[in-house]
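User: I've been going back and forth on whether these two constructs are worth ordering. Before I decide, could you fold them both?

Assistant: Sure. I'll take them in the order you sent them. The first construct and its structure tokens:
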Amino acid sequence: MAQTVRSPGSRPAPSHVANARPATGSLFATDGRPHPLQEALMVVTGVLGVLAFVSAMFHNLHLLSSWAGLVGLLTGAYGQYISKTTWQRFAFIMGIGSSGVGFLLGMAHGGLFGGVIT
């Protein structure tokens, strides 16, 4: 196996690499650069996911939960596609999951247009 799990610092950084960082061993290690678009999409996906999940618990809020869930799924999918770090991917998966649950429960309670278009 070419890739094995090693403890942090067990392998010295190559001398030919400029500005080599030592291994931190953290699951949520970042690359040290700002990613404003990804972070904004993380916040939007998280807020929409919580909104969809909570509003899905109420039968009469199916329009809110289904639309918030759908938009949360779309923003989360795009954010997952352009994410750069493990932390961002983790946050996107949490937002996508809660958006998906809210979307599906909203669809079960009446859908995107239930009661509005007859």
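The second construct, handled the same way:
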Amino acid sequence: MTTPASPRLLEHPAPEEIRLEPVLHALSDAVRLRIVRELAAAETELSCSYFVLPVTKSTTTHHFRVLREAGVIRQDYRGTAKLNGLRRADLDALFPGLLDTVLAAAEAQSARQDAAEVPGAGVTATASG
């Protein structure tokens, strides 16, 4: 793991240190998956304050730390802002197709939930004879 030289540098696993189990654990939580989905959609770094999450600030910090320590995201300070970026290239090299599959599954689940919330959505009429 890279060692911080100052309090403003955060520890991140080197690509060869990233393991599947912690990545899957990090992606298994709905809030963390939401963060990853937003980072993937943005295709750029986003500050922590960009995310509006249904949890306390301390819990948000915990979720970002789990993602960082698993190697799913990279966090760097730029001035007073902590920017978060998805480590897509590292994850794709280590686990080909994993991130795309998880993101597609999350999108499909979200679409199902949205359809279930709309009255009459997903209901098809059938003719009876």
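Notes on the second construct follow. The first strand starts at residue 46 and ends at 47. The helical segments are 20-27, 30-42, 57-70, 88-94, 98-117.
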